[in-house]
């Protein structure tokens, strides 16, 4: 079977989810890293019409949208399974994926993490304090709901690691490193879960570049 190539910009949380899934599977993969300029230009548009990362190639099969990539990886490398079999856990995992893609990333991480970490490190911009403050109610809603759904479980969708954990942990690792995220997550079960996730070899093997880690 041909090797999976992951296209993206190192430090991207969505790309980290894909790489962490490959690490969990213990399967080799290759990263094709774009520079920040390339990631906004025609090179990327040729791979991804919406100009986002990550994208994967598996032989002549190309795929984008992180949750689709994660499900594909789980289908071609079945062990260890990253999707539950029990209907309620499947529903919960899919709900969490939706929360990430519809609320947490666009309403919260894309604003607070960009303003506090990505912009200052990669573009030399100063944080827009008003934009960060305006995103706090959405951050509170998302993080409190994730904490509630996690409850006393070991993982977000139950007692086993799933795609939901791998999608959300890279996003929350950045968010927890911002003053807004740190304050909201302080003392929560979600924060403890994040600590457990960050200790996993798959997350340790896919740490963001040092400059982004230091800023975080
Ligand atoms: N729905 C997409 C979102 C991916 C996404 O937004 N990736 C970010 C990087 S983490 C990106 O490409 N940003 C480029 C931009 O905002 O122009 C997915 O799940 O793959």
Question: Any overview of this molecule?
Answer:
The protein has 216 residues and is α+β, with helices and mostly antiparallel strands. It has ten helices and four strands, in the order βαβαββαααααααα. It has helices at 13-25, 42-47, 66-76, 87-123, 129-150, 163-176, 179-185, 189-199, 201-204, 210-215; strands at 4-8, 29-33, 55-58, 61-64. Strands 2-1-3-4 form a four-stranded mixed β-sheet, covered by helices on one side. β3 and β4 (61-64) form a beta hairpin. α4 (87-123) packs antiparallel against α5, α4 runs parallel beside α6 (163-176) and α6 (163-176) packs across α8 (189-199). The longest helix is centred in the middle third of the chain and has 37 residues, at 87-123. 41% of the residues are buried. The model has no long low-confidence stretch (mean pLDDT 95).
